Amino acid sequence: MALLQLSEPGQSTAPHQHKLAVGIDLGTTNSLVASVRSGKAETLPDNEGEHLLPSVVRYTTDGIVVGKAAKAMAATDPLNTIISAKRLIGRGLSDIKSLGSRLPYEFQDAQAAVPRIITVRGPVSSVEVSSEILKTLVKRAADSLGGDLEGIVITVPAYFDDAQRQATKDAATIAGLKVLRLLNEPTAAAVAYGLDSGSDGIHAIYDLGGGTFDISILRLNRGVFEVLATGGDSALGGDDLDHVVAEWIMQQAGIEQDADHAMLRQLMQIACKAKESLTEQDHVVIEVSLADGAVWTGDLSREQFNILVDPLIRKTLAPCRRALRDAGLSAEEIEDVVMVGGSTRVPRVRELVGEFFRTEPLVSIDPDRVVAIGAAIQADILVGNKPDSDMLLLDVNPLSLGLETMGGLVEKIIPRNTTIPVARAQEFTTFKDGQTAMAVHVLQGERELVSDNRSLARFELRGFPPMVAGAARIRVTFSVDADGLLSVEAEEQSSGVKASVEVKPSYGLTDGEIESMLKESFEHAQEDMEARKLREQQVEAERVIEALTAALADDGEELLDEDERSRVESALHDLQAIISSGTFAEIKAAVESLEKRCEFYVERRMNVSVRKAMSGHSVNDFE
Amino acid sequence: MLDFSKNYFELFGLPVEYVVDAEQLAAHYRELQKSVHPDRFANATEQERRLSMQGAVRINEAHETLKDPILRARYLLELNGIEIDNQIETTHDAVFLMEQLELREALEASRQQPDPYAVIADFLLEVNRRINALIGQMALQFESATPEQLAAARENLLKMQFLKKLRYDAESLEAELDDAL
What we know:
The structure holds 2 protein chains of 2 kinds.
Chain A: E1 21-26, E2 30-37, E3 40-43, E4 53-54, E5 56-59, E6 64-66, H1 68-72, E7 81-83, H2 93-99, E8 116-119, E9 122-125, H3 126-145, E10 151-156, H4 162-174, E11 179-184, H5 185-197, E12 201-208, E13 213-221, E14 224-233, H6 238-253, H7 261-280, E15 283-289, E16 295-301, H8 302-327, E17 336-340, H9 347-357, H10 370-382, E18 392-394, E19 401-405, E20 409-414, E21 422-428, E22 437-444, E23 454-462, E24 474-480, E25 486-492, E26 498-502, H11 511-523, H12 525-559, H13 562-578, H14 584-597, H15 599-615
Parallel strand pairs in A: 1-10, 10-11, 12-17, 14-18
Antiparallel strand pairs in A: 1-2, 2-3, 2-4, 5-6, 5-7, 8-9, 12-13, 13-14, 15-16, 19-20, 19-22, 21-24, 22-23, 24-25, 25-26
Helix pairs in contact in A: 3-4, 5-10, 6-7, 6-8, 8-9, 11-12, 12-13, 12-14, 13-14
Chain B: H1 8-11, H2 22-36, H3 46-67, H4 69-79, H5 94-109, H6 116-144, H7 147-180
Helix pairs in contact in B: 2-3, 3-4, 4-7, 5-7, 6-7
């Protein structure tokens, strides 16, 4: 079917010329680079044979160090050694401050939109830190593949919002790289598995990393990967499992909650090791050196460990059920579950996930590398090395996108789990007579009230001709491209006045915020409805007041005698008195009462305007 | 170039009818996206990439509309010159509205049940059963397509929107219970 009369994909490439392309998994703890060589996708090691690059960057007066060497200095030179930059990317200073004491860095306390960490080499942003990691991986790839790269695919968590995606893309731009696509991590994993097994059907990708959890449900059919729904819990990961084990040890060993940092760090390390040992063994012996020099020894069985972590693992199942719902599927319809992320090595995770989806989880690819491998496969195709490939990835937007409307409410324009690319338009109108500008406030999140969602951007549509309230037709269009990036355009239809914005904010949602926003939106669905009803009623009351005030100014003198005028004004005052303090029902009643009390005036005005319209002359001409 | 003058059914090579073959719809969707999706034009010119984006957006929109029984009904009515303003219009079927109230009360009461999940699951089955019954009626109404039958389909669409909201609320309640765990 010739839909577009355009060159075929890859046609511009000379035959048999292999272009170099890589996939990069830019992780919180570790990053990887992979490429397709001789038809096989594999991760690329550094000179020392290491595949994983610790996502750590150290700034020194002599230069910038990335990876293992930087990580080794993290404890001794904490202020200049940036770890977990992924937690900061696409976020504002206020978001970062909420992470608080866990970050040892000094931030430049400027009004600048992009927060910068002060190092010996001057202030650096998380975007720049990420770009150093990308540069290191790209150099590794270029050395190992023997040439310059034509394009790269970078993976991001499916739950990354617009700001975080944009910031990640900026990091690549700063590193001088051509990004072919931002790819969602679970989708990348599906590609690695799907093409490997060649199995058509509906799959779930369960991705439990160090600090985040993603679930994606997708359908694979003849090379097309169609994401049906995605969900997650971005404040839950392997670190939390370590934490409950550490608490258990403290209880058993009689260590107080106010133990010092060194003790707590030791406990977390011991807990993490114990967790790893219990993957293979039935029980593990734990030794802790106590503050008084004594050594506490205990035994942790796998049964006990399972009891400790069960509540956390069960917490991941709620987003699984929700994603199934959004996809319109039941657990039985899922053919298999692909396990991604280091934390899925825990046997109990596999067991409970297997039970939930009623199938044995797939673990045949290294869960640390599967994302990079999927990204490499996608990069190879996008760069044009496989013009005959059938593979196509159809992804969704993870969070709803909307606009602020009257009264601090959000009008959803694109709901979550809509297939991208997508463009949706909605018409709005002016509220006041003679209005020539309109503010557009773009939001992301699931809640009904503006204040409960993440603000992505604001801009103004200015300079359209003045019209009576309600006559302007302002069409606002949201477009989300295949990378999941949003742009917004507003146009007044009758005059053609336009304004647009590439939504490129300097901050983003924290993972925790997204999660709690989603949770709150479910918890407060009822509350939101009430609040919304109240706001709508307030807006309605404001509209009535405004219209009546304008009318009085216009022809009150002419149409009303003194007594009538004071009746109208007292009705107006009654409504004004209650508008901000009244309940929905009270305001509604006040509006109704005002309408009744002013009915005679409204009728009189209508008659006058009808007469004017009929005559085209002055009213007196008919008398 | 994707023909934007075609309606969604024509775009997908499907007959303009309410009953849609889901398999065929999905297969045509994949074929269409394979030929226009931006990933196919990652190395193409700026103009080609723009066209590809436009085409992919159009196909996604059409797919979304055709696969959802409520959006599909609304779209078919529009093709027949019947528009609905959601803000203003609602069904006036008193019996139906009474049933809605009862269903809402039943849903609210599920919180107090010993096993609310089971109650909500049954509730969702019931709501889906009612939606499916309306879909069945609409299929016949669209088939005959007389003005009276189309008016009846329109009334059914208004009812389906009620049920859809009810389903959404039941799912939200379930999610709320999850979070309380």
